Amino acid sequence: MMPSRTRLNAIRDKILRFGKENLEEMLHALADGASLISGRQRIRVYLEDLTRGTLTCFHASGPYSEEIRKTSFPIISGDAVVSSVFVSRYPAEFRRGGQNDLPLDHELATKCEIVSSTLFPVTSNNKSIGVVCIDHDLPSHTVGSSAQTLLSEFVAAVAENIDHARIYHQQLLLARKVEEFKRREAATFMVKSAVRLLDRLTLASVLVPIAQPGGAKVLEILASYSEDSDLKSKYDQLGAIVLERGKSLISRYIDDRAVITDERLLHPLFIPDLAGQTLQKRALTEEMSLRSLYVVPRYNVQTREVICLVNYFARDLYRFSEFEMGLLQTHAEMVERVIHEIGAEHLEIRVLAEISELLRERNEELHPFLSKVLSKATELIGADTGSIAMVKEIEGEKWLVVEDEDGAIIGAKSREWLKKQIPPFRIGGYDLAVEERSLTGYVAWTKEPKIIADVNDERQSDGFHRSMSDLIKSEIAVPITTDDQVIAVICLNSMKPDYFTEEHKRILQLIDRLTARHISDIQRIESLQSEVQRLQTDVAYKDPQISSYRLGNIIGISRKAQEIVDFINTVSEPIFNRITLWSKNILQEATIGLPSILVTGQTGAGKEFFFNNLYNKLNEMYRREINENGELPVKKTNIAAYSGELTYSELFGHKKGAFTGAYNDRRGILEEAQGGIVFLDEIGDADPKTQVQLLRFLDNGGFFRLGESQERYSRVLLVAATNRNLMEEIEKGNFREDLYHRLTELSVRVPSLNERREDIPDLSIHFLGKLYRTYRDRKDPETAPPTLSAEAKQVLMGHTYKGNIRELRSILLRALFFRSGVIVTGDDIRHAIRDGMHEKVVTASQTLNEQVADELLAEIEKGKNFWEAVYEPYSKNLISRDVVRLVIELSRNIAGKHMPQIARHLKAIQSDVAMTDEEKRKLFKFKNFLYKTVKI
After folding, report:
1. Is the pLDDT of residue 840 over 50?
2. Closest Cα to residue 19, out of 387, 422, 380, 404?
3. pLDDT confidence bin for 551, thresholds 50/70/90
4. Of 827, 821, 829, 830, which is closest to residue 767 (Cα–Cα)?
5. 734, 741 in Cβ contact below 8 A?
6. If you average pLDDT over residues 123-128, what whole number do you get?
7. Which DSSP symbol is given to 803?
8. What is the CB-side half-sphere exposure of residue 249 using CA atoms within 13 A?
9. Is the pLDDT of residue 842 over 50?
């Protein structure tokens, strides 16, 4: 019972978290809870529906569910157990052929093979709002007393939430009915004015396309008018016009999707004598004596889909004059505008109110906010399901992601039972293979909304539908954009074909405009918090055995360590004063240029660790003085990881199409970190173009995205690091002297480990404790790391370090793994040092790497391509990064130094001349793999 209680509590909490827009999700979860308690799969949920004056079935699971949902019960009736339970607010049992076998329940039970039912009232604030029915297939099936008690408690706990959602849902239904009534009234007013406008007009009508259950459409009468009320009544009784070919006059011009197929109907159509035509409704001429007809079509110019047909009838054989035709065309245009705008304005106001209310709430996390936005959009538009996919970069390419491989939701999805697993969708258009195309991917690629009226037609024409459920018949997608960049796509689906309209598109575009900036801000904050958390983790760990921690967790009793601490303490206050001016948007200070710090030191000395502690100090000040709940923006990158245009793009961003593979606009890290701090490692590897732009940026904060002529501005503290001697690089012509002087306004040198030997014992204890917590067995206590013997500390202090802190950490890791006891001895350290210096092992490893690289090149020469021979084995951890680097080096010696030449030689692409879009995409993926993953 306890596992059921735990699961039941989880379902209850899920219902309580839902908003008022999630009625269907609530009822689905309610049925799951009822099924869990009773062990039965057939659950019905009826709710009081004042829009119909009935107890309407809002949810049914199990066999005959569609048939059951069509059956409602009176709110007050002595002929139904459902009604009596609703009124009495007491549970009851129904059994076919039993004492409580009332006529209305009996009829449904017989039709749907229900033997018996257990019924529970749903009450909120001492008022009935519905009934839950648990149906049984066998006479022996019942719900026990303890289960009934548990179910009653469960229903009572969630009833108030369900009631709020029920009222909201019915308000929307009522609003739609009112809007429909207004449309009919407005259309009636317009056709009435037409009849009174021209004396010879006998009757005018407006026909609109309505989808039928099978998908085909008919033309229904929205409004009609004649001064002869009997004539109008007869016309209205004729009903809808079938559009199946040959069945009606108008079907000559329009197919059963209400799309104009005969170009003659792209213009107003005059039929002088209806008596000579093949008509579906013969009564038009035979009983009503209507003879001449002037039809004015109103349709979507792009799709030719009919919006409405306005018919003007005359009883005489009457030819309308040019003036009268012009008058009626203007009149039909007004009819279209009226029926489109009536109700649409109300819906837009409702969307504005709902989203504005949502934006006023505290939405600190992205997923809950997206879920609320999607729920509101789905409910307001009346879609059956939907999703919001976020733009993510995966291996250098843009994808749309709703959920990750483990099923964790990244974006949002509603009514998950219709879309159980949504894979990532590649962004792109006709350049994608047919099986990779999707509506959301296409919309993100074009940055334009799109409606698919019929997914079957789209699929047959190799279009952009990717099926997540066979129940989905039509869909609509709209991009969510900020700064002309698509950050997400909202997609709604319907189980009816041709459901979505231009009005729905406008509503989703309104939601985009209202929420895009907020979504972008939450994304930026979450990314920043993740980076800050990582930085804080680096500086947060402190070993209780060490007393020499200084600022943050800088360790040291040496003079060199104290100099680092003094530097951070000295510069933090004035730099923060400058940051404060940025937060107040005081732009005049930009005239003196942006602040920068150059950090020098050997490889592995701790330059990035210095940065982390500096950032931590500034972030503490930021939270204390500016925003206690915020984080100082921060971005980090390594210049050596990129090359050429990719370096420029990483720092300053690019415009779509600026280079091969630039499929979308992108902000650089200097723009993303506005008002904060940026760390550029390996600044000595920056190419000349990047150096020029960096100098310009530091002078006034201005920059250009790659491929763009619009100047942009950002304010950041730039911290650059290098292990090179930049003065020597200047003499060689590799580094600009003016940039060097600009960077060294403030500079600090991080000492090597050999310069601060007195700090090594405490540093060793710190790293050993940190490594132990990372690699310890679960059975080992977290707070009892191995200790270093006095001899071990002496050995570590006496060693000459070429790799600085990195080398010390590697020695300690090997000593931790291969130690002989709980104390790390001097011998353990000596073994660890020797193991790290085995030249024979290194040589053997190098020889093996070269042998594997040669074999891979031979495989490529025999017919394999780069993706098969190198990319896939590396992705599966079958070959190392060093092997890939050797393959590239060997290819460079043969083919040339430029990436397109290497890619062609390794058969990553077929040609680097006149490349197709697919080849360009492959080259971009090739370069990204080498620069970002392998770090060539």
Report:
1. no
2. 380
3. confident
4. 829
5. no
6. 91
7. S
8. 19
9. no
Determine the average pLDDT of the residues in 605-620.
89
Write down the pLDDT at residue 504: 87
For residue 201, the tally of other CB atoms under 10 A from its CB is 24
Confidence bin at 841 (pLDDT 50/70/90)? very low
Task: List helix spans (H) across 541-593.
Answer: 559-583
Quick check: helix, strand or coil at residue 618? helix
Q: What is the Cβ-side half-sphere exposure of residue 420, based on CA atoms within 13 angstroms? A: 4
pLDDT at 494 (0 to 100) = 92
Closest of 705, 693, 706, 700 to residue 736, by C-alpha: 693
Whether residue 101 contacts residue 95, with contact meaning beta carbons closer than 8 Å, is answered with: yes
Q: Which residue has the tokens 């580094």?
A: 735
Q: Are 402 and 420 in contact (CB under 8 A)?
A: no
Phi, psi of 154 (to 5 degrees): -60, -50
The confidence score (pLDDT) of residue 3 equals: 41
- CB-based contacts of 547: which residues, under 8 Å, 6+ apart? none
User: What SS3 class is residue 255?
Assistant: coil
Task: Identify the residue whose tokens are 């909202």.
Answer: 490
pTM: 0.56
DSSP 57-79: EEEE-STTHHHHHT--EESS-TT
What does DSSP say about strands 702-704 and 787-788: parallel, antiparallel, or unpaired? unpaired
Contact 297, 260 (CB under 8 A): yes
pLDDT in tens, 209-240: 988 877 788 999 999 999 999 999 999 998 88
The residue with tokens 């059994």 is 95
- Residue 163's pLDDT band, with cuts at 50, 70 and 90, is very high
Residue reference for tokens 């809950």: 368
3-state SS, residue 403:
strand
pLDDT at 839 > cutoff 60: no
* pLDDT above 90 as % of the chain: 35
In which band, very low, low, confident or very high, does the pLDDT at 396 lie, cut at 50, 70 and 90? low
HSE at residue 707, side-chain half, CA atoms within 13 A, is 18
Q: Is 415 left (phi over 0), alpha (psi -120 to 50) or beta?
A: left
> Which uninterrupted H or E stretch holds 314?
strand 306-314
**Contact yes or no for 69/108 (Cβ under 8 A):** no
d(CA 205, CA 215): 24
- Cβ-contact 485, 705 below 8 angstroms: no
What per-residue confidence (pLDDT) applies to 530?
66
Q: Looking at the DSSP assignment, which residues form a beta bridge with residue 60? A: 44
Give Cβ neighbours of residue 146 (< 8 Å, ≥ 6 apart).
none
For the chain, the average pLDDT equals 86
Cα(351)–Cα(541) distance, integer angstroms: 48
Place of tokens 């735990």: 6
**Helix, strand, coil in percent for the chain, rounding step 5:** 50, 20, 30
713 three-class SS: strand
331-370 pLDDT, tens digit per residue, is: 999 998 887 766 555 566 667 777 777 776 765 678 888 9
Integer-rounded Cα Rg, in Å, for the chain is: 36
In Å, what is the CA distance from 243 to each residue of 240, 255, 280, 897? Answer: 9, 6, 10, 66
Burial of 38 (0-12, 13-18, 19+ CB in 10 A): buried
**Contact predicate 759/548, CB 8 Å:** yes
Q: Is 254 helix (H, G, I), strand (E, B) or coil?
A: strand
